[in-house]
Amino acid sequence: MSNITQINNQRLFLGFSINKTQSSIFCDIQQKLSGYINTEATQVNQTNFHITLGFLGQVGQSFIPLLIDRITKMQKYQFELCLSELQFWQKPSIICISGLAHANLSIMAQAVQDIAQQLALHQSQYPYQPHVTLFRKATNLTLATNINSLNNRLPINICPIDLHLYSSVNTAYGVHYQIIHSWTL
């Protein structure tokens, strides 16, 4: 891929933001877990906490208006999500807190996959599982009985009010997720 093509492409995904109160709970959980994971793991910055609805991959600048139009036409539902399970996902090397997708959330996730297929964008090979990533580049999680220290923090109930189209931007200070368009649920 040429440098010009890379400059014109953006790494995009759809997701729901986390409010400040919930974000501070996720930060507290990160702190409690930091002694139980590999030292190479990196904490997700508090400003980047979100629940992904669908990863779209590298999207050319000329496709973004069409993508926004398709998402605007997509049915959007309000939902409540209960995040209750701490998990280590070996394949993407993340530690996250996950939950089960409510029917309305599953419908929206499938609609995003359909849009991605229609526009020849990235499509997930895994079933949709909503989660908030706490650590990246994780190679292990050893909690044993110390998970009890998290019981007063879980579950976390989230009721998003907006869907966002995010661009993942690499900066000198790390990755930053920038909202480029929003829709009210």
UniProtKB/TrEMBL annotation:
<dbReference type="GO" id="GO:0004113">
    <property type="term" value="F:2',3'-cyclic-nucleotide 3'-phosphodiesterase activity"/>
</dbReference>
<dbReference type="InterPro" id="IPR009097">
    <property type="entry name" value="Cyclic_Pdiesterase"/>
</dbReference>
<dbReference type="GO" id="GO:0008664">
    <property type="term" value="F:RNA 2',3'-cyclic 3'-phosphodiesterase activity"/>
</dbReference>
<protein>
    <submittedName>
        <fullName>RNA 2',3'-cyclic phosphodiesterase</fullName>
    </submittedName>
</protein>
<dbReference type="InterPro" id="IPR004175">
    <property type="entry name" value="RNA_CPDase"/>
</dbReference>
<keyword id="KW-0378">Hydrolase</keyword>
